[in-house]
């Protein structure tokens, strides 16, 4: 009798323990991966997003930030997401060039003069069509419209026309769109990781680097090259994505929480980027960098001609169609 009673108590404790375990497992943790360093606008915005998600879901849904490419490079992390890993990552639209080619146009140079114009594209029927293709390719766009920054050129010599860039080696990320963009501007694109740029500039292996101002200042490239050319060649808007398989595992309520708090995060990130950009411009000036206003019209004309030719896989008239949505 005593044995039976002890067995019953043990069984009850085991069931209670399993109940606790199931409650503990009920909370879903999503890793958020990005290459930006701690303290940069993306990092600050993501960590605020995590607080909002935890609050909105009563702790049932949590985001854990992984800055500085801790989970791997963009392509590697995108593959992890596509295969169902519980993660969200910020990427570039041009990284879809092999799976959803037309989306890469959103990273094309001189497509928009300002962010308000560029953001109009995300409300278009064209973008809705692209989102469906993204899902068919195994991804889901959680937040389509995060403002990343305006890209300018920091170089050894002043630049005012495409001719000034003849023979000038400019570092770019290893992406077909960025290579094509810098070539269209008249320079020689030189792909390399951002971490290799400072010594490459110091050794004369490259003559310039393009990026948003906070990145140009944060990398201390101004110690080597002293001319900032306000080419504004890209108004970069980036998506936060996850895998479609993982997205479908979430409840409609969880999806709504991520989407709504994510949009608030995007608004916050834009404010952070704009404030940091203004601050970085002054810091570059204070560091002795000469700032040059640039007539972008000649660069724009070259881009409109050369970029569509560089991507024969695009739909006919794509650059013009998207440009009309943005600037119309």
From TrEMBL:
Keyword Chloroplast recorded: no
Signal peptide range in chain numbering: 1-26
Main subcellular location: other
This protein's name: Tripartite ATP-independent transporter DctP family solute receptor
Residue ranges of coiled coil: none
Keyword annotations: Receptor, Signal, Transport
Gene3D superfamilies (alphabetical): Bacterial extracellular solute-binding protein, family 7
NCBIfam families: dctP (TIGR00787), TRAP_S1 (NF037995)
Organism (species): Chromohalobacter marismortui
Biological process annotations from GO: transmembrane transport
Family that this chain belongs to: Belongs to the bacterial solute-binding protein 7 family.
Subcellular location, record wording: Cell envelope
């Amino acid at each position: 009798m005593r044995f039976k009673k002890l067995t019953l108590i043990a069984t009850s404790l085991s069931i209670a323990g399993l109940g606790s375990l199931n409650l503990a497992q009920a909370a879903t943790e999503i890793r958020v991966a990005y290459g930006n360093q701690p303290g940069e606008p993306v990092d600050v915005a993501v960590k605020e997003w995590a607080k909002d998600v935890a609050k909105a879901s009563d702790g049932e849904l949590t985001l854990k930030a992984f800055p500085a490419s801790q989970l791997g490079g963009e392509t590697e992390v995108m593959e992890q997401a596509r295969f169902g890993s519980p993660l969200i990552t910020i990427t570039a639209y041009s990284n879809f060039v092999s799976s959803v080619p037309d989306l890469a146009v959103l990273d094309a140079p001189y497509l928009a003069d300002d962010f308000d114009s560029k953001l109009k594209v995300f409300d278009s029927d064209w973008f809705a069509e692209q989102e469906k293709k993204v899902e068919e390719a195994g991804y889901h766009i959680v937040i389509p419209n995060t403002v990343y920054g305006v890209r300018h050129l920091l170089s050894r010599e002043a630049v005012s026309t495409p001719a000034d860039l003849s023979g000038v080696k400019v570092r770019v990320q290893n992406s077909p769109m960025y290579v094509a963009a810098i070539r269209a501007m008249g320079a020689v694109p030189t792909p390399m990781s951002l971490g290799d740029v400072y010594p490459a500039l110091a050794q004369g292996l490259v003559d310039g680097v393009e990026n948003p101002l906070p990145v140009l200042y944060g990398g201390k490239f101004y110690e080597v090259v002293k001319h900032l050319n306000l080419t504004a060649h890209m108004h970069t808007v980036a998506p936060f994505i996850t895998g479609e398989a993982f997205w479908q595992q979430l409840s409609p309520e969880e999806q709504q929480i991520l989407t709504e708090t994510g949009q608030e995060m995007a608004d916050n990130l834009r404010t952070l980027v704009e404030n940091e950009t203004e601050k970085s411009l002054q810091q570059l000036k204070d560091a002795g960098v000469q700032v040059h206003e640039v007539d972008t019209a000649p660069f724009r004309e070259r881009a409109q001609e050369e970029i569509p030719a560089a991507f024969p896989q695009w739909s006919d008239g794509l650059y013009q169609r998207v440009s009309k949505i943005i600037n119309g």
